[in-house]
Amino acid sequence: MSRDGMNYQPLSAATEQVVKPGEFVFAASHFDHGHIYGQISGLTSAGGTLKYVFDADPERYAKVLEQNPGAKAVSDFQEILDDPEVQLLTSAAIPNLRCGIGIQAMDAGKHYLTDKSPFTTLEQLAEAREAVKRTGKKYAVCYSERLLSESGWYAGELIREGAIGRVLQVLNLAPHNLAAAGRPEWFFQKEAYGGILTDIGSHQFEQFLTYGGGQDAKVNFARVDNVGNPEYPELEDFGEASLTLDNGVSCYCRIDWFNPKASRTWGDGRTFVLGTEGYLEIRKYIDVCNGGGGKIFLVNNDVEQMIECNGKVGFPYFGRLILDILNGTDEAMPQEHAFKAAELSMLAQQMGES
Amino acid sequence: MSRDGMNYQPLSAATEQVVKPGEFVFAASHFDHGHIYGQISGLTSAGGTLKYVFDADPERYAKVLEQNPGAKAVSDFQEILDDPEVQLLTSAAIPNLRCGIGIQAMDAGKHYLTDKSPFTTLEQLAEAREAVKRTGKKYAVCYSERLLSESGWYAGELIREGAIGRVLQVLNLAPHNLAAAGRPEWFFQKEAYGGILTDIGSHQFEQFLTYGGGQDAKVNFARVDNVGNPEYPELEDFGEASLTLDNGVSCYCRIDWFNPKASRTWGDGRTFVLGTEGYLEIRKYIDVCNGGGGKIFLVNNDVEQMIECNGKVGFPYFGRLILDILNGTDEAMPQEHAFKAAELSMLAQQMGES
Predict the structure, then answer these.
(1) Counting CB atoms within 10 angstroms of each CB, which of A19, A307, B116, B128 has the fewest?
(2) What pLDDT, on a 0 to 100 scale, did the predictor assign at position A344?
(3) Contact, B314 vs B15, CB < 8 A?
(4) Residues A167 and A311 placed together within one structural domain of the fold
(5) Quick one: average pLDDT of A86-107?
(6) How far is CA B34 from the centre of its chain?
(7) Integer Cα distance of A82 and A91 in angstroms
(8) Whether residue A144 has a cis bond before it, omega within 30° of 0
(9) Domain range enclosing B105
(10) Average per-residue pLDDT for chain B
(11) Where are the alpha helices (DSSP H) in A136-285?
(12) What is the pLDDT of residues B194-218, one digit of tens each?
């Protein structure tokens, strides 16, 4: 970021390639959620080389093979685990299977980058913490609502640079299209997806920790409910949670499956961050009645400014993750941060269920 | 409201005069908060006749006398109470004095329209409930963030007409300019203003009940704090509360005194109402980086529409209040609704303090 007179603007134009072809080799498996495509392109655009894909349904990875001519599909997951050249496995399995797949990969000497949510139970989290210790490998989580959102990422940079002073509150509204007809069976099975705060909510909780700058939090209140979809009894279509971070920052999120049909996007996601010297609002996916998303609205003691972020920020996380793996560092997203976001979202889920 | 093809739009152009000059006579006293001017103009533009003003500081009412040549200033408050022609007293006293003044007026046979917050303690509320029973007079409250906001009012009409289906959540962000230098002493005295959720918060809680359609609520969580102004130890500069209405609607508000200096308004107040068939956002006082406020952004299953409200809705509350008084009805804002909003805000305040 730089400040040009009174104006804030992102500087980096495109995602930097941090390695040459072949220097960082990875495999992609379990294409159960479409997030896998963002994870793959995030890694390849940072210079990573995709060597293998694995999924029961070849249609899901056909395009990926086209885009990555050096990659090949394998019919046995074990082939990936057995190849010492593969440094990382990325996958987007059914949520309650993500942890088992990750630990399998780590025990085979691979780092792991999973779609969020990384877990559906606190027991899985405990096993993953243990696996990190045992193997020395990373259990990284692609919290895409920030890592694959240029405005979401840049908001973090603005906050870190002090553009709104000391942060007082992070508030997140996260509506989603239900689009029930196109959803797989597991989407409606509580055991598989883990609950609305555990599943989608892990995004929001990760943003709480990042923007709010906390290491831990107390869950003050949480609610999970089915308020409008009785035909799917295990679906939670509404969730909310209030937290206070260990540094005093207030956090609140609402998550729902009620994005209306006339919306031009899958969800008018908003993030509001209030600081002592200003506030910012992120309109991530749409600027309602005013065009597309990827915008930050910043008001502080000097400026009232709209900052267009799409195409200007890139996705720095993936290059940093690759460098962390190559250098043995923990900078892209500290392991404990990734785990803590999931832990808090599951604690909130438990409170909401009780 | 009418629906013109696919578009929603307010129909009423200006506030209707519901009475002829002299048919509804009122007095205005205790100009401690500038809200008094909105209360007076609300009543006069609905046809009310201002007969008296009373305040220790003549500068505060000089302009009101110019605008209302038939009105006269009195130096003794008792003169107002003794005049049987006066049907209502409106005032904006220091908050902890509002109830005593109201009961005095009611016992003298006047209805009462006070600035919010109507009370600073639950004991005052109990006394006012008793006074309503004893005198048969109204203890009305000008919750101006809805009653004097055209977009705030019209949002209620849209919701009542079903534009967003069944309401699931009402969420309110209410930042305010501190502007400490220009504030009177009582502003910083907790006993006088009652706490941030009691004082400002009563606006938000009134909107919860109106938009959410509930009669009562459970306070799930509340926080009041001084997070950035240690030089004013009795000031609460941050407040938040989570409620669930008795019909299941979720409510959340954040209130603060951190509106930044470069803001073009005293506070970028927002209200989000989520329904089963759509959502709306009210940008009341500013549309950040995009001009003025008074706008509703509505997205449902048919439209994505921005609705300009200023100058098109008027302030129907005041005429309805006058008619209620003349006809012995309780339509403008049921007495119990006005009291319940204050009660819930004070219960949240207590929870925040504990």
Answers:
(1) A19
(2) 98
(3) yes
(4) yes
(5) 98
(6) 13
(7) 17
(8) no
(9) 25-145+316-334
(10) 96
(11) 144-147, 150-160, 190-193, 196-199, 201-212
(12) 999 999 999 999 999 999 999 999 9
pLDDT in tens, B59-111: 999 999 999 999 999 999 999 999 999 999 999 999 999 999 999 999 999 99
Which of 220-279 (B) contact A at CB < 8 A?
220-221, 223, 225, 227-228, 238, 240, 242, 244, 248, 250, 252, 254, 256, 258, 260-264, 268, 272, 274-279
Inter-chain CB proximity A254 and B169 less than 8 Å: yes
**What pLDDT does B9 receive?**
83
What is the phi-psi region of residue A279: left when phi exceeds 0, alpha when psi lies from -120 to 50, beta otherwise? beta
Q: Closest Cα to residue B203, out of B247, B170, B180, B250?
A: B170
Q: What is the CATH number of the domain that holds B264?
A: 3.30.360.10
Residue B20 reports pLDDT greater than 70: yes
Contacts of A276 in chain B (CB under 8 A): 227-228, 258
- In total, chain A counts a number of residues equal to 354
Inter-chain CB proximity B221 and A240 less than 8 Å: no
CB A26 within 8 A of CB A80: no
Within 13 Å, how many C-alpha atoms sit on residue B263's CB side?
A: 28
**pLDDT score recorded for residue A10:** 85
Q: Are residues B71 and B82 in the same domain?
A: yes
β-partners of residue A27 are A52, A89
Amino acid at A120: T
Contacts of A288 in chain B (CB under 8 A): 281, 297, 299, 304, 306
CA distance B139 to chain A (A): 34
Chain B interface, mutation test: which of A166, A240, A255, A277, most B Cβ atoms within 10 Å? A240
Residue closest to A28 by CA, chosen among A18, A63, B284, A156: A63
Residue A59: pLDDT band with limits 50, 70, 90: very high
Give the model's pLDDT for residue B4.
Answer: 55
Residues 6+ apart with CB under 8 A from B123: none
Which amino acid, B274?
A: L
Helix (H, G, I), strand (E, B) or coil at B222: strand
Return the minimum-mean-pLDDT range out of A230-239, B12-21, B67-76, B213-222.
B12-21
Tell me if A250 and B252 make a contact (CB, 8 A cut-off): no
Chain B nearest C-alpha distance from A37 (Å) = 29
Cβ <8 Å between B240 and A252? yes
Identify whether A20 is part of a domain. no
- Regarding whether A119 and A181 lie in a shared domain, the answer is no
Same structural domain, B190 and B279:
yes
Average pLDDT over residues B330-344: 98
Nearest to B253 by CA among B299, B298, B296, B211: B211
Q: What pLDDT shows up at residue B5?
A: 54
Number of domains in chain B: 2
How many CA atoms does the CB half-sphere of A121 hold within 13 Å?
9
CA-based nearest residue to B119, from B135, B102, B131, B105: B102
CA–CA distance, A140 with A332 (Å, rounded to integer): 9
Please judge whether B169 and A252 are an interchain contact, meaning their C-beta atoms are less than 8 angstroms apart.
no
Rounded average pLDDT over A142-159: 97
The confidence score (pLDDT) of residue A285 equals 97
Residues B141 and B152 in one domain: no
Cβ proximity of B17 and B24 under 8 Å:
no
Do the Cβ atoms of B304 and A263 come within 8 Å? yes
